[in-house]
Specification:
With about 350 residues, this protein is mainly α. The chain has 14 helices and no strands. Helix 2 (about 25-40) packs antiparallel against helix 4 (about 70-90) and helix 7 (about 175-195) runs antiparallel to helix 8 (about 205-245). The radius of gyration is 21 Å and the shape is globular.
Length: about 350
């Protein structure tokens, strides 16, 4: 047994006995689960569960996002992530429980992967890694959403447990953190209003739940858009900086950026559009990201034929000539989608109120 595998086995056993001082978030539970599954079994080859609950679907999606990660790298990330969570959540004495095995996560997003000097910045990775789970959350059926709200209270707000994905881990909030925080705050506000259970005249709480549902989906869709609109220019900046100043200036080389950031961003967009289990809004955003998929395909073809520098140059060229699309067209499409969402929200509330 290699030293890394022995350390992985020992860490897995110790995590089964870990009792955190504060309960880990569902995102962090999913991260440990997915890294452990990838380390132990490799890429996910099982079919997506269709007749099981949201928790099992979230686990499957989290594991699927680790596709392509070697088992050795997954072991290394798992060990680092365990150490990070122990530092964040602390430990206490008491009966032992398995954080990984007893976790029942909601449909939610993925936490930042553990920092690794051989991978792109975690703020990029965790944003793209989270998109499939955000799309899955946005595809929750209205009936299931309303049933979930009916048994929850304001302190159990799903949105209230979320945090920004694309921000760096610094004490000073970044622009990306502020933008994502606005979406999270809006989601928390609307969800808590629905969970308050107030009746407004003849409008019942279930009518409020039905009205909030499209807003919930819309904000999740906006979150996906924000992740991409933050990731694309950041990736472009890192590629240009690496080309001009070398990998010592960014901590990653061009091949790693192409294979570990540019390619996953494109693959995730394509999967989001083609996954028939997703609802219409995430698939629409996947369609809107088609130019990124085309740019990445050309980049990979050039990369395989002429090397990483020429491939990176092709990526930068593609982003530069489509800057107007990311600055004007995608935001405009998002605004149009927002108006549709608001109209649909009103319709859902009226239908529920009328009892149709």
């Amino acid at each position: 047994m290699s030293a890394l595998k022995a350390e992985f086995v020992a860490k897995s056993q110790s995590m089964r006995a870990w009792v955190p001082q504060n309960p880990p978030s569902n995102r962090d539970r999913l991260e440990l689960y997915s890294l452990h599954k990838q380390a132990a079994a490799g890429d996910c080859e099982v079919d997506k569960p269709t007749n099981k609950g949201a928790a099992e679907k979230a686990k499957w999606t989290a594991w699927k996002t680790k596709a392509g990660l070697s088992q050795a790298e997954a072991m290394s990330r798992y060990i680092s992530e365990c150490d990070r969570q122990i530092r964040v959540y602390g430990s206490k004495s008491g009966p032992t429980t398995s954080t990984m095995e007893n976790s029942k996560p909601d449909v939610t997003n993925v936490p930042p992967p553990a920092e690794n000097p051989n991978t792109p910045p975690s703020s990029l990775l965790k944003g793209i890694d989270s998109v499939p789970l955000l799309a899955s959350a946005a595809s929750e059926p209205q009936k299931s959403y309303m049933q979930r709200l009916a048994i929850m209270n304001a302190n159990q707000s799903w949105w209230g447990r979320q945090s920004p994905l694309c921000s760096a881990s610094t004490a000073e909030p970044s622009l990306s953190s502020k933008v994502e925080s606005i979406i999270i705050s809006l989601g928390t506000f609307f969800e808590r209003q629905a969970l308050a259970g107030h009746s407004v005249g003849p409008i019942t709480p279930t009518s409020v739940h039905a009205t909030v549902f499209p807003i919930h989906v819309l904000l999740l869709t906006y979150w996906i858009v924000v992740v991409y609109l933050l990731t694309i220019p950041t990736t472009f900046y890192l590629v240009v900086k690496t080309m001009l100043l070398g990998s010592n200036a960014t901590g990653v080389n061009l091949s790693q950026l192409i294979e570990s950031t540019i390619t996953p961003a494109s693959t995730t967009a394509s999967m989001m559009m083609n996954d028939t289990s997703n609802s219409l809004p995430p698939r629409f955003i996947g369609l809107a990201l088609t130019p990124l998929v085309i740019i990445t395909d050309v980049t990979l073809t050039t990369y395989n034929a002429a090397g990483d520098f020429v491939g990176a140059l092709m990526y930068c060229f593609g982003i530069l000539i489509t800057w107007w699309y990311w600055v004007f067209v995608v935001p405009w499409l998002s605004i149009a989608l927002g108006w549709v969402g608001v109209a649909y929200s009103c319709c859902c509330g009226i239908v529920e109120y009328a009892g149709l």
